[in-house]
Amino acid sequence: MTRIVAGAAGGRRLAVPPKGTRPTADRVREALFSALDADGVLGGARVLDLYAGSGALGFEALSRGAALATLVEADRTAVSVLRRNAATVALPGVDIRASRVDRMLAAANRTPYDLVFADPPYAVDDDELAAVLTELAAGWLAPDATVVVERSTRSGDPRWPSALVPDRSRRYGETTLHWAAFAGQRHS
Fold first, then answer.
1. Residue in 42, 84, 79, 81 with CA at minimum distance from that of residue 60
2. Which of 16, 26, 103, 109 has the fewest Cβ atoms within 10 Å of its own Cβ atom?
């Protein structure tokens, strides 16, 4: 079990898929969301949570004032857990997409997002992650969007496309959060 750290749904417990996911530790989420709060990113934000797993990042964003959280997950068991967690959290603005991340991003129906979380399984290699980041920058981001990638500390920095400007990295034991800011114009 994991829990929502703060906000309207603070303290509510989230189920975690039995295998295949690696939920972001409460202390890492707390640090991440404290920084996002300080940056003024969350209020009314449209959030895209890629490789959502339990949905902890998207649900935390909604709990702290985001308007919409689109949770993208391919694993059927995890999608079932996401649906149960959405009922538990009981906040408006949840949009669950049962899809592989690359397929969802290849779709023509693109919605601009203000904040993107990408927490791929460690098995996702650097080339696949770079392709996802490139696709995001090619039409999924609102002006001044923030992208946060969570990776194993051993993985090194993501290969950001030129439209995503690296901002900072923070290490939390075996987990590192990499931040970038969108420096491009939204494409239709």
1. 42
2. 109
| Token pair of 38 as six digits | 């300080």
Tokens of 19: 């295998």
Residue 188 lies in a domain: no
Q: Helix-strand-coil percent breakdown of the chain, rounded to 5?
A: 30, 30, 40
- Residue 10's domain comprises 2-182
Rounded to two decimals, the pTM is 0.93
Say which DSSP state 19 is in.
S
CB 102 within 8 A of CB 132: yes
Distance CA 146, CA 98 (A): 23
Q: Is 7 inside a domain boundary? A: yes
Q: Is residue 50 part of a domain?
A: yes
